[in-house]
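Below is how a single chain appears once it has passed through the pipeline. First comes the sequence as given, then the structure the pipeline wrote out for it. We keep one example in the README because the format questions we get most often are answered faster by looking than by reading.
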Amino acid sequence: MTALETLTITQAKSRILWGLELILCVLFYIFTDSYAGLWLLAISLVLPVVEMIGAEICAKKLFGTLGIDNLGEKQKDMTAMLKIKTTGLFPFDRIIAKIKCENLLTGEAEEYEILASAPAKTETLQQLQLKSRHCGKLCLNLKGFLVLDYFGLRKTKIPADSEKMTLITPNTFGLQVEVVYGENAVLDAEEYSMSKAGFDPSETFAVREYRAGDHIHQIHWKLSEKLDGLIVRDYGLPVQNTILLLLETGYPEKSEEFPSQMEKLVECLVSVSQEMCEQQIVHSIGWYNHKEQTYSSAEIDSLEEFTMILPELLSAVPGEDGTSVLGHYMEQREQCEFAHLVLFTPYLTADASALAERCLVTEVICEKEPRGEFTEEGAHVISVSTENAEAELSYLEI
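Resulting structure:
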């Protein structure tokens, strides 16, 4: 039985008892024919109304705050604490506290109702047992209180605003990461790739005819005038190590498997990043937060740097989106700034194939039925499952 059902039953009982009291007062007056019966009846009618009004006024002096540990583990019990404080003279013995628990990474949300009491001018603590099925950043939000007066005449809604966050850390696994340095890049490198175009306008990789989608800054105006047609420059790709790990948080249509997919993709990304930190390989991590509608990225050169950005990564709110994280990354850029992109995604994206002409692209896809490794329009694809990704991604070449 839920807390609201319990409160509703209590309200019905209180109203029945009050009704019986009124009937007894009427019978007492009829059989005694005394003013005492009238006074008793009047008091029985007026007192509940006064008590209801007083409860509603004093309920505004009811406050609540939440508390929980900063870190937790998935599938492990956690205890959240609700502190209820009253500063008024009126006690409350029938209160429902409404709490929403949302996993920002997976979009899962649950609502809890706690049946509590609050003596006058004091603080009480109530416990709430939680268990998160998936990793991510949990947001606990006290939505408000529902207060019932003693006679069960009215339920009063009291707003509240208390929020607490806790990280449910992802599981990691060991894997071998090998970086092929021949075609990777940084801005200040002295050598340039002979086989791939890049983003450095100070060096020309090739000239060619204009194609739809080419940026106006790439047009070689003098050569275009000479050849009587639009000619563009493909920029050079500095040869060194630049790697971007991207987490896809958008989806064209949300499926039942999405929370498990997001969890497994994060665990794969975190495992790859930690292994690269162990090898002292500098890399970047990027993601798109659909709640804030912002693309964010951070350069990672140590485990300490990775630990600092983990809370933001685990709170990358997903959402329905026709643009992939690659599309959001490229919205403000003329060229891809990295020599190799590793996209952790629940589905294949056309943006990855388009960028495969400019840099090396690897897609790690989490699917219900894994398809192994294959090539899709220039992008290297590794398909893993939610159940056995640790074994299916034991080796990654970048």
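The longest helix spans residues 3-32.

See the next section for the split statistics.
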